Amino acid sequence: MPLPIVDYKFCPQCGKPLLSVDFSGQHRPHCPDCSFVFWGNFSLGVGGVVWHEGKVLLVQRAHNPGKGNWTIPGGYVEQDEQIAVAITREIREETGIHAKPLSVIALRDRPGEKHDAYIVFLLEYLGGTLQGEPEEVSDLGFFTLEECENLPIAQLSLSVIKASRTLLIPTSPGFLPQTGVKMIGGDQAILYQISKEPE
Predict the structure, then answer these.
(1) Model pTM?
(2) What is the pLDDT of residues 39-94, one digit of tens each?
(3) Where in the chain is the domain with CATH 3.90.79.10?
(4) Domain Nudix hydrolase, which positions (predicted)?
(5) Taking residues 91-100, what's their average pLDDT?
(6) Which residues, 6 or more positions from 117, have their beta carbon under 8 angstroms from its beta carbon?
(7) Given CB 3.0 to 4.6 Å as the disulfide criterion, which of 43, 44, 77, 124 pairs with 86?
(8) Angle made by CA atoms 183, 91, 128, in degrees to the nearest 5
(9) What's the DSSP call for residue 167?
(10) DSSP bridge pairs for 143
């Protein structure tokens, strides 16, 4: 469930009234006491393409937006969660299927009142039993590409499904997690980079 859009009037850290201050040409709420800056409203979602025996995993949305439409499974990333962990959790919760991320294959960028980014993974099917989460999913299953094209399916889902078919080869290109790259954030920070093979 996405968080509501917040319009800060008072500092969420110290409670003092916020002032509008220019940061590189953009006015932003700023606290003169503790230096808090409100940088904007953002949400991060993930979706997953899981193929099994020539069919792809889809869920039918049980609520709006898009109630009744078929989509790849996915959801929102928690604040303290890596995106690869989020997509495996979302797929397991929504469908009962266990899967392993192979590569980032798409990014939808949607600026607006809330800047919404959606990262799509290609995942390897590991097992499990199809079982939908009733609050999220009204139906689910594995479908051939031809069957997908005849469903009321979200165009983003259909597009990434079609694109993912060319990636189902032993050395799939894509944005793969890299190891041995030291970054700020310690063990929680992961770099996804174009590569033919995971390092």
Answers:
(1) 0.79
(2) 778 889 999 999 999 999 999 999 888 899 999 999 999 988 999 999 999 999 99
(3) 42-169
(4) 41-165
(5) 97
(6) 42, 43, 44, 45, 107, 108, 109, 110
(7) 77
(8) 120
(9) G
(10) 56
